[in-house]
Design a protein that fits this description.
The structure is a homodimer of 218-residue chains. Chain A is 44% helix and 24% strand. Chain A has eight helices and 14 strands. The structure holds a DNA duplex (30 and 30 nucleotides).
Amino acid sequence: MNILLIEDNLTIIKGLKYALEKENYHLISKMTIKNAREFFQENIKIALIILDITLPDGNGLYFYEDTIKKMNIPTIFLTAVAKEEIVVKSLNLGAEDYLTKPFSTKELIARVQKVLLRSKKKSIIEVQNIKFDMDKMLVYDNGQIIDFSPLELKILQLLFLNLNKVVSRHVILDKIWEITGNDVDDHTVTVYLKRIRGKLSTDIIETIKGIGYRIDEK
Amino acid sequence: MNILLIEDNLTIIKGLKYALEKENYHLISKMTIKNAREFFQENIKIALIILDITLPDGNGLYFYEDTIKKMNIPTIFLTAVAKEEIVVKSLNLGAEDYLTKPFSTKELIARVQKVLLRSKKKSIIEVQNIKFDMDKMLVYDNGQIIDFSPLELKILQLLFLNLNKVVSRHVILDKIWEITGNDVDDHTVTVYLKRIRGKLSTDIIETIKGIGYRIDEK
DNA sequence: AGGTAAAGTTACAAATAAGTTACAAAAAAA
DNA sequence: TTTTTTTGTAACTTATTTGTAACTTTACCT
């Protein structure tokens, strides 16, 4: 399990590397925002990020806001900044936890484990005869692998990730087409839903008219 | 939403009562473990517990371990005890968070909100024989799914979201028709209410003449 | 009680959202 | 390059949804 530490203090890096690897985590550390950004390009799966705010090439909080948050990776802030407003802002933005330096390594590990325990989610979701493997990004229909185009797959994944919840067309447009950068109109979503449905032997996608789409378990 | 504070310091009790009630939580405070135990007999629903460790009649950590943990209520420790082993032990036992005194009220509130957000289960509101599932956007009448048109559903949702509160026609017009962009007259709302009522076996919607509509629980 | 304004009711034509199909441009793979 | 796949749009179809008008009933006021 990979943990990414974004921190420029070598003593902390070494200390955490030692302590976390003893607990069987794999710690990857980057000392600058630039390096972290480059690392994200590699698409290595990260279970948790430990993030400093004061970094050599920028503010970690902003980095969290504009990049990490969208990737949906749980993040613990670990920083010397103890200002109440920063703590509150970080937590409200979505940080899983906030620790101030100096910190107890054992406490950090306990908090890391809590976060990981919490965020542990199933990577294979099964609905009726359709199986979605999030790790492999493969969809099975009665055991048979079904071939989807990139966008089809992303939309289906979004629906699976929101099992039992309506996903509005608006959210689909936002989440899927923010990545491509393309500006696309509403009907496109409809067409994609048709394509996805056409590839599945069972229609597991409910339409809630005027609102969105939903996949229910069972 | 009820929050139970188990704490013997009056200054903290008063401060938190003020701060949390401002955020629309209802704070119930007990100063001893004995009183807390008695309170649990009453079976009042508690969303979160804030727990001190050093209490006049015992150790909060033990109380958590033998009583609270079994009740499965998320608990934040708020205590002067900063000993690493106690913090780690509390977190490992199952505490949702651990804050040491002195603490920032705003930070505590942010952490309280995080915990509550996390533990929020399903958003289903039930009134008499009608159930509204906000996640699925489904309405059940005696267990049977009722079919609503988009606007009907949105209006009914608005009323459910304002349970026990009057929603004025004006607000309905604003909130519902701001989305469609259409400019619609007053009577339309009346017609929609008729349509919604017509689909439900029980009329749970009260009309307050000249003011608006309201759904009451019970 | 009766007048009055608000809300309820009904029916209908217009508007619309989602489903569908087909196609050309763009991107990726060969 | 050529070939194949993917993508976005446009045009069409459908059943549903929507808004209004005209009329009736209800609740509240003096």
